[in-house]
Amino acid sequence: MVVHDLKHSRELLVHHCLVILCFGLSVCTHYYQGYSLVALLVEVNSIFLHLRQMMLLYGIQKTSDLYRYNGILNIVTFVIFRVFTMGWMFQWLLSHRAELTTTVFGLGVFSLLVIMGMNFQLLFRVWKSDYKKRPVTGKSSDNQSLKYSEKLVNGEAVGSYTHVDPSYALNGKAFIPKPDGDSPTPSSKIVKND
């Protein structure tokens, strides 16, 4: 991440440094191993989160059943294995404060707050990207249909609208004019015009 994409990887670098520091403390001291095992429960959600990113990379439409089912599992496991697990971890730190050194307690609270903040930001971005209502097709003012599509840019889904002129429709397939105004190019999906 440092070599290839430092600009977009700072958040993940902070996350990984904190995780390595906390797990390193557990491994080196042989303490807090049960706590560390509980912390690994968040990785259950990573299965669906990374599967979502792979589907976006491979161009699977957000309207497909596979994407929607994964989206539901992603949100459910996010709440159970990230939000609830980290909530329990925070509660454990507070209830065992008297048994922990100041360094361990401070590192634990700081790391959890930072990672919880990142998790809520991630949950908001996923929710906004996958569940915010958007029109799939519509009409523009010049009587051309609009086609909504998304592509992955730096790990985030970015949406855009393309004008589809109904006069280019041929045998049920829509043709989308190139931005430079040259001859139309066939789209890979059938666009239904109203």
From TrEMBL:
Cellular component aspect of the GO annotation: plasma membrane
Mode of membrane association: Multi-pass membrane protein
GO biological process: membrane assembly; phospholipid homeostasis; plasma membrane organization; regulation of membrane lipid distribution
Segments crossing the lipid bilayer: 12-32, 38-60, 72-94, 100-124
Domain TLC: 1-140
Keywords recorded for this protein, A-Z: Membrane, Transmembrane, Transmembrane helix
InterPro entries hit by this protein: TLC-dom, TLCD
Comp. bias regions, Polar residues: 184-194
Region feature Disordered, mapped onto this chain: 175-194
Location relative to the cell: Membrane
Name used for this protein in its record: TLC domain-containing protein 2
Originating species: Frankliniella occidentalis (Western flower thrips)
